[in-house]
Design brief:
11 helices, 36% helix, alpha/beta, 299 residues, Rossmann fold
């Protein structure tokens, strides 16, 4: 075992072609430390599929299936059913996808798998855009972020809509749901391990800074991810049996601009827009606190 009790074996190996400082590559590396060798991975088309499987090479050290952009959850469901039919119920099935393959194009398959309670662990690498095809806006892109399809200009300052509340949408399906962050690998690993014990669909959303898409230094990934947590932009919680609870809270909250100011995609913001974002972050966090306090079941 390596530092902090994390396994030394790398099932997502080095040598892949991800950008320096890639948050999503870290998310997959640590998730695989939790899942272990007894796992089959299904991955949607996207940035992480492209960088990890350039024919004839691969970074995956376990059985791996590349699915289409929109159907990773459906393919994972089929793998799960086939394994169960063969009596191989102890093998884990983990699906990886990005924003597009989860929030948008892949939502139909994911929703269907969750409704059927397929025993799969679905992990979304949330980096706030369609990174593989040129950083277009997605349902996970935060409000006012500049992307290639929501550029900051004189009339419109980036994306006009706030991000979609995917964790709560998946909680309404009756899934085990958890949010994670690459700055806190032990928390991520413990949540993946828990997800793999559930007899129904699990959904884990991992906050993954994207160095070129967010226009941040490759050395700042972990710092930016920590600031997202400390500013309440990326809260850490889980929903188990329909009940939401925080798994980690900042000791001191920082203003959201300390997080925004490090990113080129927010460089155009004016004082009103920063205040809008701060207000939205505060309101969303308060909603989560109220759900935890009241114990209202989300499914």
């Amino acid at each position: 075992m390596s530092a902090f009790g994390m396994p030394e074996e790398e099932l997502f190996a080095s040598g892949h072609r991800a950008c320096a400082g890639c948050g999503s590559a870290l998310a997959m590396r640590h998730s695989m430390k939790a899942a272990g060798k007894n796992t089959i991975v299904v991955q949607a088309t996207g940035c992480m599929e492209v960088v990890s499987t350039p024919y004839p090479e691969t970074s995956w050290q376990i059985p791996y299936i590349h699915a289409a952009f929109e159907n990773a959850a459906a393919v994972a469901s089929g793998v799960r059913r086939a394994l169960d039919a063969m009596g191989k119920k102890s093998i884990n099935v983990v699906a990886f996808a990005g924003d597009g393959g989860t929030f948008d194009i892949g939502f139909q398959a994911l929703s269907g798998a969750a409704e059927r309670k397929e025993r799969i662990c679905y992990i979304c690498n949330e980096n706030g855009a369609y990174a593989n095809t040129g950083m277009q806006r997605s349902g996970a892109t935060p409000q006012y972020a500049s992307t290639t399809t929501s550029p900051a200009g004189k009339v419109i300052h980036g994306k006009t809509e706030p991000k979609k509340p995917m964790p709560l949408i998946m909680a309404a399906h009756g899934c085990y749901v958890a949010t994670a962050n690459v700055a806190f690998p032990q928390d991520l690993i413990s949540k993946v391990k828990k997800a793999l014990t559930k007899p129904y669909t699990s959904y884990i959303q991992v906050f993954c800074p994207c160095t070129p898409g967010w226009d941040i230094a490759s050395s700042s990934t972990i710092n930016v991810a920590k600031l997202a947590f400390e500013t309440k932009t990326a809260p850490l919680f889980e929903v188990e049996d329909g009940i939401l609870k925080f798994t980690k809270k900042p000791g001191v909250f920082k203003p959201v601009n300390s997080y925004l100011a490090l990113q080129g995609r927010f460089r155009h913001l004016n004082d009103k827009e920063i205040a809008d974002i701060q207000r939205w972050v505060n309101e969303e966090y308060e909603k989560l606190l109220k759900l935890e306090e009241t114990g209202v079941k989300l499914s």
